[in-house]
């Protein structure tokens, strides 16, 4: 393939939480565009190994894996060091990994706080900090996966919403601080893949009915937005792009 069909050829992309679901689709999309992709995972070992094998079968040596806990700052620094050692640089950081579970007021624990903030805010902050020198050198970009509920709260999910709201502000702050070398943007998905713990069909249909497009989104629609921000959005930074089918037009 030539440069026009592989616009990210010779670029290195690290995607957190990319063994499954939306993260895996982002990895496939950036890989198809020519990038060498690093699959970060925590507990999804088998899924990560399968995806790494899948992508390396397409283009040998084009995909690596790294297991790390996002709550461990040392592990995040080590991951960046290892990626640089193995690939020689870093161009794209996608902070995709995210924990999600309800925290009704009166039952919130410190463990809830740690789990939700580690993946949704602490991890992205310290990973971005470790990656910043290399992204500056490559004039790269950071793309954070936020949520439409960072601005419109979701009932009984106050800790999650607070963490995602923090990630929106982190996106804007880093865009200001890391510019002009590094662009920092965010994607806010709407209804894409239902949480594995929430399969209530009536609730799902009610939420779909509130979107302007009257359908669920697809993971590839998030991945294509990430690709746009990484590849083409050379004068966009500090922005949050909602990919929600018009969900935020209605309460």
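^ Assign residues to that structure.
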């Amino acid at each position: 393939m030539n440069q026009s069909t592989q616009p990210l050829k010779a670029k290195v992309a690290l995607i957190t939480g990319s063994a499954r679901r939306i993260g895996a689709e982002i990895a496939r999309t950036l890989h198809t565009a020519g990038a060498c992709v690093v699959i970060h995972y925590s507990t999804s070992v088998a899924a990560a190994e399968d995806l790494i094998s899948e992508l390396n079968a397409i283009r040998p040596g084009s995909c690596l894996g790294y297991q790390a806990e996002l709550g461990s700052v040392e592990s995040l620094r080590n991951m960046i060091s290892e990626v640089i050692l193995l690939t020689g640089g870093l161009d794209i950081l996608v902070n995709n990994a995210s924990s999600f579970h309800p925290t009704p007021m009166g039952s919130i624990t410190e463990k809830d706080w740690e789990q939700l903030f580690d993946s949704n805010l602490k991890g992205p902050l310290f990973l971005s900090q470790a990656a910043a020198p290399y992204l500056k050198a490559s004039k790269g970009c950071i793309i954070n996966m936020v949520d439409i509920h960072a601005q419109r709260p979701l009932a009984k999910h106050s800790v999650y919403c607070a963490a995602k709201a923090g990630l929106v502000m982190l996106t804007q702050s880093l865009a200001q601080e890391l510019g002009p070398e590094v662009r920092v943007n965010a994607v806010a998905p709407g209804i894409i893949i239902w949480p594995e713990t929430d399969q209530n069909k009536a609730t799902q249909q009610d939420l779909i009915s509130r979107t302007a497009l009257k359908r669920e989104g697809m993971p590839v629609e998030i991945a294509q937005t990430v690709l746009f921000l990484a590849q083409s959005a050379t004068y966009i930074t500090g922005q949050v792009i909602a990919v929600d089918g018009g969900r935020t037009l209605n309460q």
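The chain has one domain: 12-249.
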